[in-house]
Write a structure and sequence with these properties.
Length: 113
């Protein structure tokens, strides 16, 4: 199958899934209001339509053109300026809280008494 055929199949599966979901919603409404006679069929039909849509979507995604390969960057030479030193880390309340949670899961948490 070509990509165009797969896209057409995905569009058909999408419209079929939308119709099945509308039908299921109608039957669920009927069931809530005491007119349930076709709910199992609508549920089964929606389930099958969803899986057809999922297969069509995966088939189309598999034919997606690959991104171009980017050439690796040249290594840093001695003539390049040295990278700047990072600013000193300042501990925040968020960091202390994250560390307290990590200590709790490691079993090192000492609750205040």
């Amino acid at each position: 199958m070509t990509r165009e055929e797969r896209f057409a199949d995905l569009k058909a599966a999408t419209s079929q899934l939308a119709a099945a979901r509308r039908s299921l919603a109608d039957q669920q409404f009927n069931a809530r209001h005491g007119v349930a006679h076709n709910l199992m069929f609508a549920t089964s039909h929606e389930h099958v339509a969803y899986h057809r849509w999922l297969r069509a979507h995966e088939a189309l995604a598999a034919t997606e053109p690959k991104p171009p390969v980017v050439a690796p960057k040249a290594p840093i030479t001695a003539s390049a300026p040295a990278p700047q030193a990072a600013a000193p880390k300042v501990e925040t309340t968020f960091d202390r809280g994250r560390e307290a949670v990590a200590a709790y899961y490691r079993g090192e948490f000492e609750p205040l008494r």
